[in-house]
Amino acid sequence: MKDLKQTLRNECYSKDLEQRKHWYSPIAAAYQQVRPRYPQVIIDRVVDIARLSADSTVLEVGCGPAIATPAFAALGWSMVCVEPNPDFYRLAQQTCEPYPNVELRNCLFEEWELEPGKFDAVLAASSFHWIAPEVGYPKAAAALRPEGALILLWNKELQPRYEVYQQLSEVYQAHTPTLNRAYEDSTTQAEILDQLGQVAIESGYFKDRVSGQTKVEVTYSVDQYLLLLNTYSPHLQLEPQQKQPLIEGLRQVLEQNGDTVQLSYVSAFHIVRPK
C-alpha cells in the first residue's frame, strides 16, 4: 500500500490544479475515442449494490469526455457532473445532449461549491486518484446523504499478450527506458485495484466496502492501440523528439504481429458508505 500511495502522490497529486485542468487537452478527442468503456456487468452490479433508482441524485467527479456518464444517465438519474478540463467539458456536453437530466459544470472538484448531504451517490470513474485523499474523501462524504454511497470505478491499462509485450519492451528499452514498466497480468491488476479500494477505507471517512472485478478482452487496430498509448500519462508527457521514434518502433513490432492487437484489462468497482 505504501508503494501505491507514493506512486499516486508522485504522478497525480503532485500536479498543481492549473496543470491538472489542461493535462489531457492535447489528446482529448483521442481519449474519448479509444479509452475503454465500463462493462455492463460492472454497471449493473453498481446500480444494484448502491440501491440507486430513477429518483436518485448523483454527483460525478471528473467525468472527462463522458466515458461512463451515458451508461448511468440513461437510467434517468439526476446527475451533476464536474469536469475541470475545458476540452473534455465540451466533448461531454456533446455526448450528454440526449440526457436533459445531466448538468455539467466546468470546474475542479476542489473548486466545486459543496452542497452538503444532497446526493445519493458520488461517482468517480478512473478519476478519484487525481484528487489528494485529504481533500477528496472528506468532501465526497460531506456531499452524500447518510445512506449514500461513494462509487469508484476503475479500468486498468490495456495489456497486450505477454509475447507481444516482450517485443514491445525491447523498443521501450531502446528509446524510453523509463517507460519500460513491468508486465501487469490480470492477477497483478486485480491486486492494484483492490488496494485503491482500501485507500477509501483508510481515509477514515468511509466504511462497508463492497468490491467487484471482471477481466475484459478487446481487439484494437494497430492505429487505435497506438492512439490509446498516447492517452496514458507516461506517453503524454514525452517530448516529440522522444515520442516519434518510440511510436514508429512500436508500430513496426505490432504490424509484424498482424493488423490487430489482442488486449485485456481488469475493470473494477468499489462501493463504500459514509461513516
Oligomerization state of this entry? Answer: single chain
Count of helices? 12
Beta-strand content = 15-25%
Could you state the order of secondary-structure elements as H and E?
HHHHEHEHEEHEEHHEHHHE
Secondary structure category: alpha/beta
What CATH first level would be assigned?
Alpha Beta
The CATH architecture is 3-Layer(aba) Sandwich
- The total count of strands amounts to 8
CATH topology: Rossmann fold
CATH homology superfamily name: Vaccinia Virus protein VP39
Provide the helix percentage: 40-55%
Average pLDDT figure: 94
Uncertain segments = none
The total domain count is: 1
Kindly, what is the distance between the CA atoms of the first and last residues, rounded to a whole number of angstroms?
22 Å
Largest sheet: 8 strands, mixed
C-alpha Rg (nearest Å): 19 Å
Structure description:
The chain has helices spanning 2-13, 17-22, 28-34, 40-49, 69-73, 86-95, 133-143, 162-175, 186-202, 222-229, 233-236, 240-256; strands at residues 57-61, 78-82, 102-105, 119-125, 144-155, 159-160, 206-221, 260-274. The protein contains twelve helices and eight strands. The relative contact order is 0.16. Helix 8 runs antiparallel to helix 12. It has a single domain, classed as 3-Layer(aba) Sandwich (Rossmann fold). The longest helix is centred in the C-terminal third of the chain and has 17 residues, at 186-202. It is globular and about 55 Å long. Strands 1, 2, 3, 4, 5, 6, 7 and 8 form an eight-stranded mixed sheet that branches. It is α/β, with parallel strands linked by helices. Helix 6 (86-95) links the parallel strand 2 and strand 3 (102-105).
